[in-house]
DNA sequence: ACGCAGTTGTCTAACTGTTGTCAAGAAATA
DNA sequence: TATTTCTTGACAACAGTTAGACAACTGCGT
């Protein structure tokens, strides 16, 4: 990605695309000609201009073809199925490692990320995460790189091997990468809208960012409002953007009384047509109390995706 | 000094400009001729006279081209903007011809940014900011777009026309753009290193991010550690990355006793060779108390740049 | 085991697009 | 006076375009 210029102008030449996807320009053109796996724009002079999304898709295709899937078959498959396949395949790293050994699995990426964090090397951390998201596809990246990395940092912190400085540096970089994902996915006119935030007194926004990125990858038009947001503000924002759903992340262990009544207030204010999805460690802990007030509780990113899917079908 | 934004006094020949931007005079003229990427003034005899703004803009463009963006496309992006702001200008307000001074459309950009913020349109806000940075160059962008936009949001908040949700959304996007700048300017071997953070109990990190971006644009290798960082952590990090300087941002109105003693501690811990620069609203308020303990206080981004320049010369 | 048809990555050839650099003589600058 | 910069047009080097060819490989039926 690195740095895209802006969503609609973010266009990369074949050379850059080849470098970032690990394919040769020849292959890139052959795949396009034979299977229409991508449809890059063209410059005035007729040169191909690939979007960030094209690069993601192509990297994913490369990874899957290397694992034995035929490109012809993959080309007929939707992006969604592609990512599902990626998820299934990523568990079992190929038994025969590639000769060059540049085939990173999710574990290698999160190890490299932790390493960069410990060295306070923000540039390297960013590079690692970006590569991971491109080669693995966003859903796999979130589940198997970002989450484990955050967990690793948390663990390192409790063991005393990772300091607050390390943690801040990593959060900053991860926030940036997740923010990038939020805007890489092209939003269509008809995309359902989701408001993502963290309710009052919940200052940890990583969960919310993860949720936002996951939703964006599922094709939602995400409005990300950050942490510690008063209920009336959430309501007003949902109204302003015409949201089809609201998702909140709650991680602090004990759910206080105020929070439950806050959520009740929000639940009521949204009206019956707009669902409220709540996730995060603390949400699972208190699932009963939350479901009883009409809030949908999800235990994992995967479950969150399912909820989004259901919801989208109803819209 | 090279960074002081005073376009009327600072005029540079091609040679100087070439040296500062890292481009050859040939390329400079070619870019101007082919893409109208700059429009330098002329001496009486017709020699090109580049402003500081031109230089900053050109060096940003050079970095972006090195990252794989085509100069033609980059030029197109900022060209669009100049035309657009010019149109809006002539249509809406002052029939007075615009003084080709430093605010060159910066006002239009920050107005557009505020507008996008009010509409909760993160994508548009991002696009506006990115284009502004390419059109104006990083320092001018920071001084005349980001700072006014933040100020405008603050003012809107106190007037009740901007809510917390708007503010959060904007902060998120601005953080991302500033992070992007940090990245674009990275990779320079032998660049002096700067650690940027916010001391304990100072949760507003925007000032620190601005400082980080400004320093990066001046050629520093910035390690950005975020907000609310304990003194021992700052010290340890400065040690770990081998910092040549530490910069802190302090915005909360009242400087408490704890903060002063914290800074004293930090000042002592850094040793005499590593300067400690502190900026932000609250720092100016308490300048005397801070300077007396050996801390350098800066009142503006520009002053911060000067301090960095001095410092760099000494390294 | 063998051959066949389809698949797939790579390559060539001829051409166009993009971009950095240069030449030459005139003019400005220090 | 010695340098530097000016302009215009040209050019080379590289990158990217199409169309088609080719060989290595696949799976499959015999």
Record the SSE blueprint.
Two copies of one chain form a homodimer.
Chain A: H1 14-21, H2 25-35, E1 41-42, E2 48-49, H3 52-66, H4 71-76, H5 79-91, H6 106-118, H7 122-136, H8 138-159, H9 164-184, E3 193-197, H10 206-217, E4 221-224, H11 231-241, E5 245-249, H12 257-270, E6 276-279, H13 281-285, H14 287-292, E7 296-298, H15 301-314
Parallel strand pairs in A: 3-4, 3-5, 5-6, 6-7
Antiparallel strand pairs in A: 1-2
Helix pairs in contact in A: 3-5, 3-7, 6-7, 6-8, 7-8, 7-9, 8-9, 8-10, 9-10, 10-15, 11-12
Chain A binds a DNA duplex (30 and 30 nucleotides) through residues 13-15, 24-27, 29-31, 33-34, 43-48, 65, 70-72.
Written account of the structure:
Two copies of one chain form a homodimer. Chain A is an alpha/beta fold and 315 residues long. Chain A folds into three domains: 14-87, Multidrug-efflux Transporter Regulator, Chain: A, Domain 2; 106-184, Methyltransferase, Methionine Synthase (B12-binding Domains), Chain A, domain 1 (Orthogonal Bundle); 193-314, Rossmann fold (3-Layer(aba) Sandwich), CATH 3.40.50. Chain A is built from 15 helices and seven strands. In chain A, the strands form two sheets. In chain A, strands 4-3-5-6-7 form a five-stranded parallel beta sheet, sandwiched between helices. The first copy, chain A, has a two-stranded antiparallel ribbon with strand order 1-2. In chain A, helix 10 (206-217) links the parallel strand 3 and strand 4 (221-224). Chain A is globular, with a radius of gyration of 20 Å. The interface between A and B is large, with 47 and 50 residues. The structure holds a DNA duplex (30 and 30 nucleotides).
